[in-house]
Design brief:
The protein is an alpha+beta fold and 358 residues long. Helix content is 28%, strand content 26%. The longest helix is centred in the N-terminal third of the chain and has 19 residues. The mean pLDDT is 96.
Length: 358
């Protein structure tokens, strides 16, 4: 038996991958429904693999996962579109940053094309930019529908899904590890830690390594219905110079909403989605460089999400943590899964299954 802690997209994808290989799998989820944290509190963008350091897990699993995800969405009727996206700039220094991004994308095997102001106007007539990159393999999906499809696939594969079931602790056993919940004691050969924001806490409960997940909140605004015509697709600025995010971008969903965000703020709490939310004026200031004609009346506050980052604000990058625990070999971590975790989820699941088999 393999026990997976966490029924977000990574936990469910890992459970499906292992079940397809003949493993008996049980997934524990503390919430009443799967995917209630990071999996459904994000932009829903299917990334092409442009941004991540060549050779990193994020780069390799994003490119692999992107194609798997588009195929899965097609086969399971998950609303998704390979829309492409623009990454745009206007300042002289933006050209240097865009060239560096183009070279990085090529190293990762991701396609981008240089485009001029005329191309940008043709696709996004209200966006102010003089240069940009076009990523034809970027897309968007309805994240909640994807979670539902993964859940259905897991149940079809006879995965046991225990919702409303937090992990209380674990004990060594002759054949592996005994997982303790409020109602059960489950004998497991291996435990997969896919607990998202709480992966560091779960590792401690499992007798595993000590590491830290840093919660980083991203907030969103959206365009009012009367202003949604200003954006036709996905529009990104040059990546944020801090390295912590891709910049406050514009995301048009399949139902016509246009989201603005996410912002970036490290915080202490892992469950604080609402305290000290940014005012609309802050989003107006962020958005006008891309959409100069919007006004405060064109904006509405929207949702927020919390990234499970593997590095503090003082550092620029941490890779996915997907490996066996060095202290407790019965534990496999799928931790520190921030962006592009949604895109890479199916590829992460296969990698987890390889580790469990190994």
């Amino acid at each position: 038996m393999v026990v997976v802690i966490g029924a977000g997209v990574v936990g469910l994808a890992s459970a499906c991958a292992m079940a397809r290989r003949g493993r008996a799998v049980c997934v524990l989820e503390r919430h009443a429904r799967p995917g209630q944290d990071t999996s459904t509190h994000n932009s829903g963008v299917i990334h092409a693999g442009l941004y991540y350091p060549p050779g990193s897990l994020k780069a390799r699993l994003c490119v692999e996962g992107r194609d798997r995800l588009f195929q899965f969405c097609s086969e399971h009727s998950v609303p998704a579109v390979r829309s492409g996206k623009l990454i745009v700039g206007s300042a002289p220094e933006d050209e240097t940053a865009l060239r560096a991004l183009s070279e990085n994308a090529a190293s990762n095997g991701a396609r981008v094309e240089w485009v001029d102001a005329a191309f940008i106007r043709g696709r996004e007539p209200h966006v102010r930019a003089t240069m940009g990159l076009w990523s034809p393999d970027t897309g968007w999906l309805e994240a909640e529908a994807y979670v539902h499809a993964l859940r259905a696939e897991a149940l079809r594969l006879d995965v046991a899904l225990l919702t409303g079931t937090p992990l209380f602790g674990a004990e060594p056993s002759r054949d592996g590890i005994t997982v303790v919940t409020p109602r059960e004691r489950i004998e497991a050969e291996t435990v997969v830690n896919a607990a998202g924001l709480y992966a560091d806490d779960v590792s401690a409960l499992l007798g595993g390594e000590t590491f830290t997940i840093y919660p980083c909140r991203g907030e969103y605004a959206e365009l009012a219905p009367r202003a949604r015509h200003l954006v036709n697709g996905l529009v990104y600025p040059v990546p944020h110079p801090s390295g912590h995010g891709l910049g406050t971008h514009l995301t048009r969903t399949l139902d016509g909403n246009v989201w603005i965000g996410p912002t970036i703020r490290y915080q202490e709490r892992k469950d604080d989605y609402e305290q000290d939310r940014l005012p609309l004026e802050a989003f107006l200031e962020m958005t006008r460089p891309l959409l100069p004609e919007i006004t405060i009346d064109d904006l509405r506050l929207s949702g927020s999400g919390i990234r499970a980052k593997g590095h503090p604000a003082s550092e620029r990058f941490a890779d996915f943590m997907i490996r066996r625990d060095a202290k407790n070999p019965c534990v496999v971590h799928a931790a520190a899964i921030d962006s592009p975790g949604l895109t890479a989820s199916l590829a992460i699941g296969e990698r987890v299954a390889d580790l469990v088999d190994g």
